[in-house]
Amino acid sequence: FSPRNPLEDARTRVAIQQLQTRDREVRQHEQAHMAAAGGLLKAGPFYSYIQGPDGKRYAIGGSVEIDTTEPRDDPEAALEKGLAIQTAALAPAQPSGADLAVAALGARMEQRARAELARREAAVNAYAQQAAGDAFIAARGEPPRSIGVAVDRAA
After folding, report:
1. How far apart (Å, rounded) are the C-alpha atoms in residues 89 and 109?
2. pLDDT tops 70 at residue 147
3. Mean pLDDT across 121-128
4. CA-to-CA distance for 33 and 14, rounded, in angstroms?
């Protein structure tokens, strides 16, 4: 029987408390991602562990997988998904560097979608202006103007 070293026991207790705190933080972090991800969640959570001086495993890192593929030919869906990706990535109280990178990916998706929606709206407005001009010209008895189409006038 060897006497226990009180200083060593105190260090062990502190180490275990620190590992327990880290484990709790990691699990809360990943749970925040999962709760916010909703239908974007693909897999996880996955944890990396370390064995403590008490022989127990403690989570020291973690991850979840979310779907970050951009919807094709649907800017409304891409806008919604970009915002959802940002929400899921930034859900934890203290986002990691990887979380910030995923949020930036979602922000770029959102920006592309907004640009495409603006482009489409501008095209619709240009067409509407052209149609309104054609209606005005037709009301004056002139044939409508068409972009890229030659109009034969009857003499």
Report:
1. 14
2. no
3. 87
4. 29
